[in-house]
Amino acid sequence: MELLPEKQAIIHADLISAVFYLLSGWQEFYSDERDQHGRFPYAASVQHQYGFVAVPVVNYYFDVLKTAIEHVSGQPLRPRRWADGRAWAAFITHDIDNLYSAWKAPAKAALQRRDWLDFARRYWQHLTQKDAWDNLTEVQQTVAEYGAKSTFFFLPEHRKAANGTPNADYQYHRISKSVAALVTAGAEVGLHGSIGTSAHEAQLQRAIGQIPRLAHNAQGLRFHYLNWEPRITPLLVDELTFAYDSTLGFAEHFGFRNSYCLPFQPFIFQRGEVADFLEIPLNVMDATLHHPRYLQLAPEEILPALTPMLQEIERFGGVCTVLWHNENFDPANTRNGPREFRAIMEYLRSHNVAFVNGSDICRSFHHLSSGACKGPSQPETKSF
Ligand SMILES: [Zn+2]
């Protein structure tokens, strides 16, 4: 960029089209590449090709425009401030896939070793004791220790998908009392859309009906397995009037799928306009950090690996969205478990982050959308 003294600015790079390309998800919409879960793969992205997944380049482009506007107008543009005047925000979320399956893998391993005694002990524990993953209160309390509040996405489908992919290991209607207790204690609740709901309107509509609407609470969404079909999902989420979605991150790598570290209204190609709902991009998921098909970071490598990304979000006053499944609050997980979660939370707190939930974020972006923060439309309204 070249600045001229006479209240003019000339920007040589075609910033606007670069911004639009990344923010709209153009590469996903026009690509036929999908992985075994039907997702646009990180390996096919420009972020992977040019190695900038952890750099929010759209924010850098906007910064160039901001400098130009400040030069031309002679007025400094004030940066966004979060609660209590804090410079950046963090959104702590939990997808609830499993509540009762902690015992299964060790029991299966005991069977394979033909260690009948160990198997019998584990099976007996399973019959008589609470499962280690039945821990929603502990999850909420752990998060609250940092002055943060949890957002739980519940999966109202317990049957497997047609292709055998598992959904929940629990039945949502049977845990409604625990959900109500979480809400009373200050948690936010959202819908975790089961396999198929990201591409089929009737299925998504049915799922909405299964999650009771809590006044100004259940208005957000994240799809199971981060399922997102760029040619269909934005339209569905918009038509069913969710206030926000928080699915858009790459499962394979932490960082910025749309190269932007703030919530934004996704572009709907079929309509040539932006959606009403807010996308709150997902930056880091527990499974990404240690998984056979994703990264295999050692516990002590996790925070150093994430730090440059966290610094970028802080620099631009963005939102850091963290997904930590309840099953990874099990102390038996020493790879991407409670210790690694706490290390991230300590970093966030020590860097003076504002802990917010989806409703807080919607409220701060209120001026962008056509109406108030809406909840999903419901065929029937139930309460606990
Ligand atoms: Zn899930």
Automatic annotation (TrEMBL):
Pfam families to which the protein is assigned, alphabetical: DUF7033
Gene3D superfamilies noted in UniProt: Glycoside hydrolase/deacetylase
Residue ranges of domain DUF7033 in the record: 11-101
Family matches, as InterPro entries: DUF7033, Glyco_hydro/deAcase_b/a-brl
Name under which the protein is recorded: DUF7033 domain-containing protein
Organism encoding this protein: Hymenobacter endophyticus
Taxonomic lineage: Bacteria, Pseudomonadati, Bacteroidota, Cytophagia, Cytophagales
